Amino acid sequence: MGDYKITLKDVFKKKKGVAYRKLLDETVLIDTTRGEIFSFNETAGVIWELLDGERDLGSIAGEISSEYDVDSDEAAGDVVEFISQLLEAELVEKPA
Amino acid sequence: MKTLYNVSTKYGIPSSVILEVTYRCNLRCIHCYVVDRKKKELTIDEYEKLLRDLRELGTLLLTVTGGEPLIRSDIKELLLLMSDMDFAIRLFTAGYYIDENFADFLRTINLLEVEMSIYGSKPDLHDSITRVPGSFKKLTNAVKLLVERGIRTNLKFVAMKPNYRDVLNTKVLAEKIGADFYYDVIITPRDDFSSEPLQLRLSKEEMREFYSTMGISFEFSPRKVDDFICNAGVGIMAISPYGEVFPCVQLRIKAGNIMEKDIADIWNNAEIFKFLRGRRLKDYNCGSCPLVDFCFPCIGSIWLERRTMDGCTEGLKNRAEVLRELAGEK
Ligand code: SF4
Known about the structure:
The structure holds two protein chains of two kinds. By secondary structure, chain A is an alpha+beta fold.
């Protein structure tokens, strides 16, 4: 999905086989299929939680914007940027 | 790279927990340390509460072991529960009960790896150690089913007097059938401190022969005396099928029972955990031992053999001496 252009209408879900735990200020993940460990900061962890295969990125960005009191363009930019990292790391997928 | 150990020490949580889900087993391995006390095992509902509490506490990785975990009639339900609660799972089994159906099931859960023990490259040798005819065939068949499904599969060879000379053949076999191969030379007394398994332990000469055959593929570096001696009670704990909580499966000093107290309370307040967190390598004999850089000290096995955490065992000392000798020759 290297050249895929992410839009706010897109919906993603956590890849199967990824175990994760939200700790104080970070979320730690183990991708059991590859045996690798990852960790995200607090905001990224909130986005991760919201990737349920149903909500689109626009709605997730809306939630981030109100939760952390950042303007909606900035939140949308952050969400898209984070999703592109997750795609690169193969931790999310499109729902079937 | 981030490790669960870093996560544990940063937050003071048990990021990895060993769950002995039963002590029952269909094999009768000659060196096994487990003693089946035949008490009532935790039910699925009791596990559900425990898993919820562990999730809350921050645990991410569960090692499911036994006895033979697959002997539990509700094992699928239990593994599914763990996976649904977003734990990663390592499964230790003899593979005897892994058929196509079970292997298919394992693909559907958050399974990091399956680890099984192999005691030789030929059925007769392996089965003479498990004391169950046909166990080698079941094991190799299980490896095939798992590997075909892309499940990471480790075979661990426990070197003892009757089998240590077969290690290279076993390694070749393991790799041929697609498993990763590990070995161990440390044999411990049983959980009730009985020492029969120690008769199987390699002598120093046998260890030298063993490591000369295998070669030393690991690097030695100076140990830091201000580090913890191991992860027991610091980042891991073990929970028996009866709900008893220990720092690890070998360091069986009871911290509490989950049927009497919440696991978070036990983890945070049990004396043995506080004791282990307060001690560093320098506070044990190992801290001043000249062999320490060539040793993998295990206070659990020292405890089982000597009923104290201070001291050493013949097996650990022999191994460290042999490794130092061979490292010097490298
Ligand atoms: S040889 Fe014994 S005392 Fe020395 S470091 Fe190893 S376990 Fe500790």
